[in-house]
Structure formats: structure tokens, C-alpha cells
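Protein in question kept in full:
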Amino acid sequence: MFDKVLIANRGEIALRIHRACREMGISTVAVHSTADENAMHVRLADESVCIGPPSPADSYLNIPAIVSAAMITGADAIHPGYGFLSENAQFAEIVEAHGITFIGPSPDHIRMMGDKVAAKKAVKAAGLPVVPGSEGAVEDIGDALKIAEEIGYPVLIKASAGGGGRGMKVAESADTLEEMITLAKRESKAAFGNDEMYMEKYLANPRHIELQVVADGHGNVVHLGERDCSLQRNHQKVLEEAPSPALNAEERARLGRVGTEAIRNLGYRNVGTIEFLYENGEFYFIEMNTRLQVEHPVTEMVTGIDIVREMIRVASGAPLSLTQEDVELQGHAIECRINAENPVTFAPSPGKLVDYHPPGGLGVRVDSGIYSGYSVPPNYDSLIAKLIVHGGSRNECLMRLRRALEEFVITGIQTTIPLHQELVAQQDFINGDYDIRWLEAFVAGDR
């Protein structure tokens, strides 16, 4: 097992990783920008190293600074968390070239799944169903027109190197196809430095269902059930729950079976999340995240399994501490992402917190690195807290979530707590009757 782990991240996820390490008897090193010198994970870590100014490019994306910090402090492993360098294959390679263990999948798997075209080919060969579309990158408008005619309009144009909804456009007909491709290419080039595009059939009202998997590199693979992440705005998740209210037992078992078999066929190691669109009883692979997910706590709440701990164990070379028979879903969990944003306009709201009172009680968990007097910097993602609630049933979970949201006090800045209070009161949500387009329609006043 590792003696010392450097946490190459910030905010709530850095604190989450620190806690897992401490419970395993592992020392921690926090890296931070000058904007985060008073962050909670920096205060609690055994050691801390400033790696640059507030700009992510000069700090949390600064590979030489992070690797140097690991070497100077004698860290024998690096956990990247999510975001920043967590899915950067070059970073993983550099870390391991310096004799330091990267806590995550192999660079080859990170690279494969980071290229959406390559990922689609790989998982299709491994046995996963995919959305009908181009076999690879779209060569030109003539190629695009031919593919669109075969799969039928509307079609979804997606960036091969994309993520977070950038480089993604919908063409309703042949008349708009060229324009949408041009716009998607331009957006993808600006965001990722790559304008390669592929096309898929546009599904009208799907759910976003993802399967959490863990593999140890010794041939052992387990899945920890699914999460429903359909409540999204601008392709960004807002609220997640486990298990999905849309699936029955047979569908849940089928998803777990095909997912674990595909991961085994790929020879994958460590944690990963396979994301699907689900419509009319069918699952279609869309991408795989080769890292820890923001929403991993809902899975932990319904399984009782510490996913971060399992990541660290597997990276150290240990086999999985559980088998598929050990995984049993208990009750229901929902996570609300609390952002420092105006709950109506979604404009960022950085600044100094005056009051901070997180909710508590049975089945309530808050993952956050903020505290009274903390200043939320304007340089990073606006996520400041995650409220995760567990109940014996979905109805019990909903009632507990409403109570917890009422108790949650953050003043001095604006947050999305009022939005979540509205969401959990909507009959469609109470009934579990929503899809990936529901939230945007709700925000626009169309529901």
C-alpha cells in the first residue's frame, strides 16, 4: 500500500480523497494555487505545496509543477480526482515515467476513451450496443449527407474529442446539416484544438443512465449499479439518483451484465463509468469516463462501498475487496449539486460566505470544502457542495431531501439551493417521469 498520496485537485473532491487516504493510514499532500491557500483540504493535509497562480493553466493543469511537488514531498502515488488532468493520458504517462503510481486507469485506456470515435469502435467490439451513426469521423459534407440519409434525421453532430456539450449540434434536416457541422467544428477547434466530428442518430426523449464499474487488473470486474443523470442543463448534470426510477429489475441486470463483460473484454483496470442513453427499453453507449465521477456518492450510499478507497487499493496492485455477489443495492439515494450561481440566470456568484450551516441527520451527507468566512474564488468551476441523501425507499429519500434542503444555509453568495427546492416539488420529478430535456424545458418555463 502507498505511504503518501499527492492529491492533484481542489475543492470538495480533494477533501473527499484526503479523507479516504487518512482512513487507510496514508499521508496526504495537497497542491494548491495561490487562490486556494486557505482551502479546507490544504489545511487538513499532512503537507501542502503551492503550484502556481489562480489560473488553472498555471496551477492545476501545470504538469511539471505537480510532478515536481510529488517528487519533492516523496509521494509514491497521485490521485487526480475529476476534471483538470484526471483524463489526460500524457499526464498519467509522465507520472508513471517518474516512478510514481497514477491512481486511475492505464494511459492507453484513458487515451482510447478520450477519443469518442475510438471509444465507440472499442466498446462495440467489446459487446456494448451503440447509437446508430458513423463508423468513424465524418470526412466531408458529402459523407455526412450520406450517413444522415441512412440513419434518418434529426442527427447529432459530436466532437470526437468533446465533452460537456461543447462541439455538439443537432441538424433537423439536410438543409441545416452543413451549417451545423461548420458550427460544431468551430466550437470543437476552439475548445479542444481538434475539429474531428462524428454523427449519431438523435434520440428524442432518452434518459441518461450510467453504470459504475471497478476492475482490478487481475481479471476481476464488478459493477455497483446504475445512476440516473437525466436532469441536465447545457449537457451539465444538476441532480443524480440511484437506482434509476426508469429501470426494472430485468433491465438493471442486463445493463450490469453487458457492462461488466465489456470491461473485462477491454482489459480495463481501476474505476470507470459507462454512460448510456436509454429509450424504449434499449441502452446505447455514448461515452466512458475513465475517472471518479462527481456523482459517485449516490452509489456509495446505496451500496455502502467506498469507491475512492477501492481506487487506491486497485492502483496499489491489490485485487478487488469484493465480488459481484457482495454488491447489494439498499434503498435510494439522490445527489443535488450546489453551485455558487444565481438559481434563475445561472450567472456565477463567487465571493465570501457569511453563514454556512450544512444539514444533518440520518441518511444525510454533505461533501464540501467550504466553511463560514471562506471566499469562493472566481477562477474555477462553480460547484461548492454536494448534498447526498439516502432513504429506505425513493419516497422516503425525497421527503428527507426536502427537509435537508430546507436546513441548508449558505449566505453571502447566491447558490442553486432554491432551484433544487423547486425541482424536488415538481410532480414529474416525484413520479420519476423525466428525461434529458426535461430540466431545460422547466427552466425555460415550458413545464
